[in-house]
Amino acid sequence: MNKLASVPKSSRGEISPAEWEARVDLAAVYRLTAHYGWDDVIYNHSSMRVPGEPRKFLMKKHDLLYTEVTASNLVKVSMDEDLDEKSGVNRPGFTLHGGVLKGRADVNCAVHIHTETGMALAGLKHGLRMISQQAMRFYQRIGYHPYEGITEDFSERERILKALSNHRALVLQNHGLLTVGKNAREAFILMKYLMSAATIQLKMEATGGELIEIPAAVCEKVYTCSEAAALRAFLGADQAACQSTLNAEQCATATGCDAGQTYHADMAQACLDAVKAITCAQLTSIEVITPPACNMICT
Question: How far apart are CA 127 and CA 286, in angstroms?
Fold first, then answer.
């Protein structure tokens, strides 16, 4: 086990514009989580990878309520350290989020909650069922990790990542829910849909009636159409962010490119045009909505 490290303190002047934006977004996630009643006193966590510092991430100070979290009091930690409450962060939260961000380079934000609804779903052996439109977003794209107790042991990270795989959500059985995204908006919205799907399922199952399972082909079609709409919105927002930014490096950060990569506005526009031309009727798999230009936006 590594030597416990202390959390370095940063002043506002030391924070880059990109990091400050990430802090504002993550603080908003904490406040929205509290607004929807998903918080659990000082427990549960959301995290955000620090732009330009891929091995570091932001999370709340251990002793703060969700309603007390601000952009300036979030702490920046290294996922390569071994931290606990003596360092000002929650050990289980650091273990979970540090492991997810360390193992999934495509993920920049993770949201984890312990709501009663989420835990009720997490206690069902059959898990999330495809019986509502909200559940379609997780069709064959949600993992399940068996309960091992409080998430404090770094060795559990490997098993959590294996269960999460390349999915967008994870049910921590008998524990809670986790969603991940490229940004704070995606991770939070996914949690909103997952909570909605869980609520609907529990209410339907409580009736004792026979439930209508949505056919696999329809599940895939609805999922892919939803992804197409999300990609159109995301690319459109990227273009607007880039056009409003004069500095090329800031433009790359605003549009989701990794540090050191160059953002190509022409490829982004070509990708957006190609995606706009796709209709839901043409969609048969998620690969259809990934035109070649979309993989050349950041190089």
Answer: 23
The domain segmentation of the chain, as residue ranges, is 12-206, 216-296
Neighbours of 73 (CB within 10 A): 12
pLDDT tens for residues 34-47? 899 888 888 788 99
- CA 180/CA 100 separation, integer angstroms: 9
Give the CATH number of domain 12-206: 3.40.225.10
Q: 43-102, pLDDT tens digit by residue?
A: 788 999 999 888 998 998 878 888 888 888 899 998 888 776 677 777 878 888 888 999
CA angle, 68 as apex, 67 and 71 as ends, to 5°? Answer: 110
Distance between CA atoms of 106 and 70, rounded to whole angstroms?
A: 25
Instruction: Give the integer Cα–Cα distance in Å for 48 and 36.
Output: 20
Helix axes 156-164, 91-103, angle to 10 degrees: 50
Q: If you ran DSSP here, which 8-state letter would residue 61 be given?
A: -
Tell me the H-state helices in the chain: 17-35, 91-103, 116-122, 156-164, 184-206, 216-243, 248-254, 265-276
- Under a CB-based contact definition with an 8 Å cutoff, are residues 38 and 30 in contact? no
